[in-house]
Amino acid sequence: MALQSGTLLVADREAFDGSGGVIGVDPSNGQQTPLSRGGMLVEPVGVAVARDGRLFVTDLEAFGNGGLIAIDVESGEQTKVAASTVFHRPFGIDVDADGQIVVGYMARQQGRGAVMRVDPRNGEHHAVAVDVRFNDLTDVVVDGNSIVVADADISGIASRVHRVTEGVGASVLVEKAPGGSVLTGVAIESDGMIIAVSNSIRDEKQLLRFHRSTGQLLKVFEGRVLKAPFGIAIEANGMFVVADVVSGVVRVDPQTGVQTTVTSGGHLAQPMGIDVQR
């Protein structure tokens, strides 16, 4: 059965009694539908949907060193796309307009984050902006001809946002996020503004809006529903949806900042990644 447009797609690292899986969520009533579980999935943390409807999932522990898995949403069938000793603990993921997969991962040799582009047809891959010194790359989102990267610092001192242009390099868009911020997710609004998840080491769990060109902090969205937010996606109507390890799936109004729970419990145990079916 094909998924309805607007369905929320959630990667949960502990769903189904710890086997890990991907769950579809009805955006109107929060009903959960298991899409794929176990098998190659060990600790799925990121999910992205391609224009042809296929899902691609990053898994921290698949194939021993982490990997990239394709999922057929109708059958739940899993297919390995890429895995190697270089492709270490992949986390953030997005799919560009040409269907190429962009993955944020840890480069084993340098012990630092890196960005990889993967061909979903044959798993061929190459590193992007290999000389950039990321700290702990947590999420990526394609923005036209560039890639916006959330780079966390678990101390909350030096979390940054980078813009990576293949063949050119990377620039620091946000030199320093607000104090205590540990950036875990990033998304692009229809006007190009950047929304980042701040899983703060302090009590405040926030969404931060930055200017797409200057990196200026424009707005902070706060509330009590977000407890341990990680992934973020944007619905067709502009609403933010956040995968929160504690609260489940949370919707945030981009105008008022009001937070509401879409769904929690059920199959959801540790939701980490989220995307929206086109």
Topology:
Blueprint (H helix, E strand, L loop, with lengths): L7 E5 L2 H4 L2 E5 L6 E6 L6 E6 L5 E5 L7 E5 L6 E5 L4 E2 L4 E3 L5 E7 L4 E7 L6 E4 L7 E8 L2 E7 L7 E6 L3 E6 L8 E6 L5 E6 L5 E6 L6 E6 L6 E6 L5 E5 L3 E5 L6 E5 L7 E6 L2
Antiparallel strand pairs: 1-2, 1-25, 2-3, 4-5, 5-6, 6-7, 8-10, 9-10, 10-11, 11-12, 13-14, 14-15, 15-16, 17-18, 18-19, 19-20, 21-22, 22-23, 23-24
Question: What keyword list fits this structure?
Answer:
278 residues, mainly beta, Neuraminidase, 5-stranded antiparallel sheet, 4-stranded antiparallel sheet, 25 strands, 1% helix, 50% strand, globular
Short description:
This protein has one helix at 15-18; strands spanning 8-12, 21-25, 32-37, 44-49, 55-59, 67-71, 78-82, 87-88, 93-95, 101-107, 112-118, 125-128, 136-143, 146-152, 160-165, 169-174, 183-188, 194-199, 205-210, 217-222, 229-234, 240-244, 248-252, 259-263, 271-276. The protein is mainly beta and 278 residues long.
